[in-house]
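Notebook entry, structure prediction.
Reason for the run: the old model in the group folder had no record of what sequence produced it. Starting over properly, with the input documented here first.
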Amino acid sequence: QNEATHLFITRRASPSFPVPMLGRLLSAAAGAGATVALADMYPDALPTLGLTKPKDIKLTYFDIPGAGEKIRLALLLGKIPFKDERVGFQEWGELKPKTPYGQLPLMELDGEVFGQSGAMLQYAGKLAGLVPKDPKQCMYVDVAIGLDEDLRGKIRPSVYLSMDASVPAKTKAKKVAEMRKVVAEKDIPYYMNFFEKMLEGRQFLTGSKPTVADAQFLVTTRYLTGGVLDGVPKDCLKQFPNVVAFKARMEEMPELKEYFAKK
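New structure, fully documented this time:
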């Protein structure tokens, strides 16, 4: 019986086994299989199991929810300290050439800059313990994120058109109104039915604990009910009680409640 096996047995028999011993346990455990087993035994200790944790995290985005909000929420849920840098639209012209892909948000980790909000969300989620370690559970999370992205894809064209200065105002207003009518009456109900079913008997989209999918979906529900989309009523989710309850539940989480209260 090697040291790793002995320590596994010790932990099973003694719930008071100290978490700081996990580093030594990993050292003794042989192979990736043992590491996976340890992660399953200690899900809340994942961020301490030898992962590279940055000393400084800075998230740069506009002072709006947009593509940066899901990352902010994931970091907040995990109580991960970060600098929340908000830039004005007037600053964007000067900043854009300095970004890796001409986009925001940006995440700076100990001086190294990264782009792509989806990658940042996954990174933040891994630090915060919001990404399952089991591949099948990850599939459920990614399915929920994919559905949310599909819904956003239905909304996005009307948003881009509304900002297009090359289209005459009257023509634009008429076309946007037509597009938003489809969004409100067809697209939102179509996708919310899926989320409503996901939340049957569950507190969160994939189980009893929030994941990065919940962080992203919360942003969407707040967006749809925030009155910022002309033609989309603020009560557009009222026929989906599970979704409404999910939104309220997430907003009441201590890690997020204070943040939303300041907005």
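Summary: The CA atoms of residues 62 and 88 lie 6 Å apart.
The old model has been moved to the deprecated folder.
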